[in-house]
């Protein structure tokens, strides 16, 4: 069998032989003469283009992927408390929040009994639930969805631009006059083949396999149990809030760095290697080009003359002729620049936001140095930022409102065009104004919400201060009571001192009278001393008793408060332990349910695989059975044929034997 190239050469030679036979025809001679006297341009070029894609983004995602995988397998969570008012019969557990709520909503109290116990009709209960919808998990969910589209779009782009190619371009332009006919002939042929570059093809194939593997990994993240838990949660919107978990946790910090990389890397970069050369024409090649021109002319002219009557019946279509645009380059021969293929839009993202924040901070610092107050500096910095945005609008849409002297000198003769331009500018200005109004309304809403927060915190501060004031008043009363007791003790001491002073004075007087009536004085002194001692002992006993009573009261009060506080602490500890036990129980239930689901899934997969293997073995057994039956039938048929042949041979032997016996 001949190769395609050999067949092409054979057909080409037969084609040349046929044209050689009509070389001496008068029309052929006249055509070649007219063709050579006209304007002829021949162009032929051979070009090759090969692309090598950049793998930086693949290495970056592969390095950060383990952190994402670790986060999705062990997601962060928090406890969410749902408050609900239920009938007292349905309340399972009550905490301090329930008591406070009941104290502030007395209409829920059914009765207050004689012993002081309260029986409510309804009460507020709190139910705890594990909440995975925290900001950090929503950040990871949004990042995985961004990463999925990031990798998938690059995979599709690399597949579309994977192959390198070699292009051969031939172009022939001719203008000549044949008899009274002006002929403009144009022939353009482009041949495009795949470029055989083993090293580059091997590199691109390995790169494509890596991207496909990476796409599978990211798709597994998108279909993970973590994404199912986060289904229905709100995505995060830049700028990303740098929480303590994102800043301190290594895996979340890697996820944040990957977010910044996705913001910054919006191209599929590649290197292009281009080789080209201009191909020359020899006399034989130019002769073949002339033959091609004649063949094209004859084919078109002969067919149009042959179908002239049919073409004359077609109605003419009238149209207005417009001017043609003149092109100086051929689009097929323009080599594209290796500038990369842009996939993601470059709207506000985390990377550009960080850059703009740095510029704004620098401008704010400069304005604060120049300004007298912080408010003036901040207003100037914000005004500069707004002026930049307005400058972009005015420059892009040509919304310059200042008087342009040059435009006044140039008069537009078409008022319809001018009116259309002005209407378009007015429409753009209206869109800008409406957008700014939305931003202004958002700023007002933010200010109102902040004012509400300020009012709420003011109320909390006032409530806190009032509680502190009440506590201070109680402490002040206690201090006054202690102060009064100290004052009373001082007065008692003073009375005792005066009494002792009076006694000593009386002793001095008695000593003076002792000389006169020594016996009487002695007796009188003894009696008086006895009375004074009794009085002092009584006073002392009274003071000691009062002190002991007060001390006992204070001690009993302190012990009671201590006992109440210890009971309250024990209650809180028991409630906390019970709550933790409930949480642990719920977590064990969740883990057990997850384990059972995984076990069920594994069993189901095992059952499906066993069923598949059984079906496959059954089909294989049936196939083998059919083959054995077929072989048995063939063997049976061959055996029957063999037996028939042996039988025939045996009968022939018997016949020969009988003939011989007859002959004898």
Automatic annotation (TrEMBL):
<feature type="coiled-coil region">
    <location>
        <begin position="465"/>
        <end position="534"/>
    </location>
</feature>
<protein>
    <recommendedName>
        <fullName>DUF2357 domain-containing protein</fullName>
    </recommendedName>
</protein>
<feature type="coiled-coil region">
    <location>
        <begin position="559"/>
        <end position="594"/>
    </location>
</feature>
<feature type="domain" description="DUF2357">
    <location>
        <begin position="12"/>
        <end position="166"/>
    </location>
</feature>
<dbReference type="Pfam" id="PF09823">
    <property type="entry name" value="DUF2357"/>
</dbReference>
<feature type="coiled-coil region">
    <location>
        <begin position="618"/>
        <end position="663"/>
    </location>
</feature>
<dbReference type="InterPro" id="IPR018633">
    <property type="entry name" value="DUF2357"/>
</dbReference>
<keyword id="KW-0175">Coiled coil</keyword>
């Amino acid at each position: 069998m001949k190769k395609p190239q050999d067949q092409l050469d054979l057909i080409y030679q037969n084609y040349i032989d046929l044209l050689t036979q009509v070389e001496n025809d008068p029309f052929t001679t006249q055509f070649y003469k007219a063709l050579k006297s006209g304007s002829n341009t021949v162009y032929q070029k051979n070009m090759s283009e090969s692309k090598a894609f950049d793998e930086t983004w693949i290495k970056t995602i592969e390095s950060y992927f383990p952190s994402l995988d670790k986060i999705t397998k062990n997601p962060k969570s928090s406890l969410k408390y749902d408050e609900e008012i239920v009938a007292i019969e349905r309340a399972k557990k009550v905490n301090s929040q329930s008591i406070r709520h009941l104290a502030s909503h007395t209409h829920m109290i059914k009765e207050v009994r004689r012993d002081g116990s309260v029986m409510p009709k309804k009460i507020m209960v709190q139910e705890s639930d594990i909440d995975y919808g925290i900001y950090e998990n929503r950040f990871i969910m949004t990042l995985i969805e961004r990463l999925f589209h990031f990798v998938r779009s690059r995979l599709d782009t690399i597949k579309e631009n994977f192959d390198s190619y070699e292009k051969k371009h031939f172009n022939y332009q001719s203008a000549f006059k044949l008899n009274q006919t002006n002929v403009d002939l144009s022939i353009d042929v482009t041949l495009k083949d795949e470029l055989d570059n083993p090293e580059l093809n091997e590199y691109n194939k390995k790169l494509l396999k890596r991207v496909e593997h990476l796409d599978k990994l990211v798709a597994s993240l998108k279909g993970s149990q973590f994404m199912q838990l986060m289904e229905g949660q709100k995505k995060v919107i830049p700028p990303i809030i740098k929480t303590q978990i994102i800043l301190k946790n290594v895996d979340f910090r890697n996820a944040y760095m990957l977010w910044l990389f996705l913001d910054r890397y919006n191209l599929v970069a590649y290197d292009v290697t281009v080789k080209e050369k201009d191909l020359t024409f020899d006399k034989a090649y130019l002769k073949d080009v002339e033959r091609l021109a004649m063949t094209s002319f004859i084919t078109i002219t002969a067919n149009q003359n042959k179908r002239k009557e049919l073409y004359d019946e077609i109605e003419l279509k009238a149209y207005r002729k417009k001017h043609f645009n003149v092109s100086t380059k051929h689009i097929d021969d323009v080599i594209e620049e290796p500038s990369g293929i842009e996939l993601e839009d470059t709207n506000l993202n985390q990377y550009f936001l960080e850059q703009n924040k740095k510029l704004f901070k620098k401008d704010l610092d400069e304005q604060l140095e120049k300004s007298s107050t912080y408010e003036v500096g901040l207003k100037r910095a914000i005004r500069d930022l707004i002026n930049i945005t307005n400058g972009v609008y005015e420059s892009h849409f040509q919304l310059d409102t200042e008087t342009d002297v040059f435009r006044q000198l140039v008069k537009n003769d078409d008022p319809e065009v001018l009116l259309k331009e002005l209407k378009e500018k007015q429409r753009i200005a209206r869109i800008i104004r409406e957008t700014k109004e939305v931003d202004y309304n958002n700023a007002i809403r933010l200010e109102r919400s902040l004012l509400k927060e300020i009012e709420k915190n003011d109320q909390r501060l006032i409530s806190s201060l009032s509680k502190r004031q009440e506590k201070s008043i109680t402490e002040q009363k206690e201090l006054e009571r202690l102060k009064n007791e100290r004052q009373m003790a001082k007065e008692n001491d003073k009375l005792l001192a005066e009494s002792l002073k009076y006694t000593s004075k009386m002793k001095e007087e008695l000593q003076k009278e002792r000389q006169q009536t020594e016996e009487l004085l002695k007796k009188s002194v003894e009696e008086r001393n006895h009375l004074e001692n009794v009085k002092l002992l009584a006073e002392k006993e009274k003071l000691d008793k009062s002190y002991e009573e007060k001390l006992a009261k204070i001690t009993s009060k302190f012990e009671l408060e201590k006992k109440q506080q210890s009971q309250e602490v024990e209650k809180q500890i028991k409630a906390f332990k019970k709550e933790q036990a409930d949480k642990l129980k719920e977590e064990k239930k969740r883990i057990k349910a997850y384990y059972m689901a995984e076990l069920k899934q594994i069993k189901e997969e095992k059952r499906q695989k066993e069923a598949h293997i059984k079906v496959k073995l059954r089909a294989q057994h049936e196939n083998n059975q059919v083959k054995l039956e077929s072989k048995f039938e063939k063997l049976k048929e061959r055996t029957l044929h063999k037996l028939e042949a042996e039988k025939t041979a045996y009968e022939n032997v018997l016949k020969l034997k009988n003939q011989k016996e007859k002959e004898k």
